[in-house]
Design goal:
By secondary structure, this protein is α+β, with helices and mostly antiparallel strands. The chain has 4 helices and 6 strands; from the N terminus they run αββααβαβββ.
Length: about 150
């Protein structure tokens, strides 16, 4: 829908308003801000499409497997994708880990009596998981914590 946005923005006279259409309707934009608004909307659309349900499900499976193999005495009570948290850390993690494929999941993690030195017994709410992958590889847990 917005593929030729730069061309549209360039053809609008300086003293006229431009219009940008998205799923919420039509937005009237001052021409000086039109390109900025279009680029923002492109990024929003890209973020929405960043992770399919299948990709999120595969990332969740990777965390579950990681917990089973590496977090003795711990159980995931709930795990979910938080788009806002992802957007907050996206650029930082991409730069830090040198990849364009990063996802952040959140969980409620229960640590039992036999969880060893890693955790005290209890529930760790909103425990964050950082996963990476290459274009054609599977998700791998790179980090976790608060």
């Amino acid at each position: 829908m917005l593929e030729n946005s730069e061309l549209i923005a360039d053809t609008i006279p300086e003293n006229e308003y431009g219009y940008v259409s998205d799923s919420d309707g039509v937005l009237k934009v001052d021409p000086s801000n039109l390109l900025k608004q279009i680029n923002y909307m492109k990024k929003q659309k890209a973020d929405e499409k960043s992770f399919s349900k299948k990709e999120i499900a595969n990332a969740k499976k990777a965390v579950k497997k990681y917990v089973k193999n590496n977090k003795k005495g711990c159980t995931l009570k709930k795990i979910w994708y938080n788009k806002g948290l992802y957007q907050r850390y996206e650029e930082q993690y991409k730069k830090r880990f040198g990849t364009d494929y990063v996802i952040v999941l959140v969980s409620d993690l229960y640590a039992g009596e036999d969880s060893g030195n890693s955790f005290e017994k209890g529930v760790y709410s909103k425990y964050k998981w950082i996963l990476l992958r290459n274009k054609n590889s599977k998700w791998k847990v790179k980090g976790s914590g608060y």
